[in-house]
Write a structure and sequence with these properties.
Elements: H1 2-18, E1 21-26, E2 29-34, E3 52-54, E4 57-65, E5 72-83, E6 93-101, E7 112-116, H2 124-135, E8 144-147, H3 173-176, H4 180-194, H5 205-218, E9 224-229, H6 231-242, E10 247-253, H7 266-282, H8 285-291, H9 294-307, E11 310-315, E12 322-327, H10 329-339, H11 343-357, H12 362-376, H13 381-391, H14 410-419, E13 441-446, H15 454-461, E14 467-472, H16 485-495
Parallel strand pairs: 7-8, 7-9, 9-10, 10-13, 13-14
Antiparallel strand pairs: 1-2, 3-4, 4-5, 5-6, 6-8, 11-12
Helix pairs in contact: 4-14, 5-6, 9-10, 9-11, 10-12, 13-14
């Protein structure tokens, strides 16, 4: 398809030259300019820069690079900076990366779509490729705004990630076991580095909401169609609460209720998702015959590693180099959690656990290295600390009842340890109150989501009088690109009538069959 487009374009350009016309772009629009068919000795005037004026902003063409990839996304970018501390606007200002993916329409609709990334710590411009298939139908009539939340991407990032130690399965403190002192030391070292040019108290959700409203006003005050994914659903709800008139419609994918204390229920939510996913194996004759009880096998493996963490070797799936890592109950929990996020990797989990239980850790840790690399490349840990330490940490309580789950209580203890040294920003008094609004809203959840399960979506929908919550069978975390969801999102934004939305196309969805061998689900 792309090659045929280039051929057609070449023919059009050749025809234009033969006809004695050049096509230049002025302010983003195509314009025909007459020229003589004979060569001229007159000096050629330099071409005008391509610009696009929107509100008070001047956009120019740009490329949004994907981390550790030669690929990029064509967009239009404009410079924008904001006060780091809004109570002292004359102080330090920080640059934000603002990009717009332009609609293919000659005259787009006045409302603009805004994508709010997850994490906390992911950047909209860097994670956009993962949801681009869902956004494609929307570009037919609307412009799409990508704003890297402050502290992420190219918006004054708060990143202390060590590339050599990044990712689950690395030979780090997490692999050997949880050590609160090491977490505190690492957080303090990160803080000392970042404090040279940032005050980390001002990188919270509340600050991001104010930035987003500044962007809207700079764009000429259009209404926004807000699409939040995972942690982005928290940002979306807080934005609606503060700026209801700015929002035309809202889409929430992988819903985090305002009442949720981030980190508090990670262990129980993962355990519930694993039980539900592994129950499929018991109902499948081939899977049951091959693996018996994957849930039991997982916990037997965990107990063995708890008693005897040890070094293992496997081949790096990207370069086939031999890699040695310490496999412990903590690294196992991290890997299993990553596998549970998507239906494709969840379908591999019983097979990978069984292989590891029999001494072959390659399938489990090799896939984990791919997953953790993708995540680590788009996550800014300092910004995550700024959000959680300001908004959730004081509400986190020890949960000894979670100690025997696969994830255990270490994430809560890790956040509490880091936040004991990390400065805290301000949290509005009503921050954790449920959102009550009439904004048209489409909420979506995956049946087996291990971090924002469907009952979270139901909880938020109770406060939204003009909303619809759909649950996608067999799916995991973040479902906006799955099946017919892109078309449903487009239909919803066109009509903003969630209750009348025809969702029967979702009935055809289901889980990925569990792999009983590396050739697939068949024995």
């Amino acid at each position: 398809m792309q090659r045929s487009h280039r051929i057609v374009l070449a023919v059009v350009i050749a025809a234009a030259v033969l006809a004695g016309r050049h096509y230049l772009r002025d302010d983003g629009k195509e314009k025909a300019v007459s020229v003589t068919s004979q060569a001229s000795n007159a000096p050629v005037a330099p071409s005008r820069p391509r610009t696009w004026r929107v509100g008070s902003l001047t956009f120019t063409p740009c490329e949004l690079p994907q981390p550790h990839s030669g690929l990029s996304t064509a967009a239009w970018c404009a410079p924008l900076d904001v006060p780091e501390d809004r109570e002292h606007p004359d102080g330090r200002r920080i640059p934000l990366r603002l990009a717009v993916i332009r609609s293919s329409a000659q005259v787009p609709l006045s409302d603009m779509v805004v994508f709010l990334a997850g994490g906390p710590g992911q950047a909209a411009t860097e994670t956009y490729p993962t949801i681009a298939p869902a956004m494609a139908p929307l570009l037919a009539h609307r412009n799409l705004v990508l704003l890297d939340q402050r502290g992420t991407g190219a918006s004054h990032p708060l990143s202390c990630r060590n590339d050599e130690d990044a990712g689950a399965g690395s030979d780090s403190a997490e692999s050997h076991g949880f050590d609160a002192d090491s977490v505190r030391k690492g957080a303090k070292e990160c803080l000392d580095t970042l404090s040279k040019n940032a005050d980390v108290r001002f990188y919270t959700t509340t600050d991001a909401v104010a930035d987003l409203e500044d962007v809207r006003k700079a764009l000429g005050s259009p209404q926004f169609d807000v699409i939040g994914v995972s942690y982005g659903t928290r940002v979306a709800q807080q934005y609606v609460r503060s700026h209801r008139s700015s929002v035309r419609a809202m889409v929430l994918d992988g819903v985090a209720p305002n009442e949720l204390v981030l980190g508090e229920s990670f262990a129980v939510d993962l355990d519930a998702a694993l039980k539900a996913q592994f129950a499929r194996c018991a109902a499948d004759k081939a899977c049951q015959a091959r693996f018996a009880d994957p849930y039991q096998t997982l916990y037997q493996l965990r107990d063995a590693l708890r008693a005897n963490p040890h070094k293992v070797s496997f081949r790096d799936p990207q370069n086939y180099a031999s890699v040695q890592r310490v496999l412990s109950e903590y690294s196992l929990a991290t890997v299993v959690r990553m596998f549970a996020y998507s239906p494709e990797t969840a379908a591999l989990l019983p097979l990978s656990i069984d292989a590891a239980a029999h001494g072959d850790v390659g399938p489990l840790l090799g896939q984990a290295k791919l997953l953790s690399g993708d995540l680590g490349d788009t996550m800014d840990g300092g910004m995550q600390y700024s959000v959680i330490c300001s908004e959730d940490a004081d509400l986190l309580q020890p949960r000894p009842q979670d100690k025997d789950t696969i994830l255990g209580d270490t994430m809560i203890e890790a956040f509490r340890a880091a936040c004991s040294v990390w400065p805290h920003g301000k949290r509005p008094a009503d921050f954790h109150e449920p959102l009550r609004s009439d904004v048209p809203t489409l909420l979506m959840s995956g049946e087996y989501d291990p971090v924002t399960p469907p009952h979270y979506g139901e909880q938020v929908a109770k406060g939204l009088s003009n909303s619809r919550h759909v649950v996608l069978k067999g799916q995991g975390h973040n479902v906006i690109t799955r099946g017919c969801m892109p078309r449903l999102v487009q239909n919803f934004l066109d009509k903003t009538d969630p209750k009348a939305l025809d969702t029967t196309c979702l009935d055809r969805m289901g889980p990925v069959p569990v792999f009983v061998g590396f050739n697939g689900a068949m024995p």
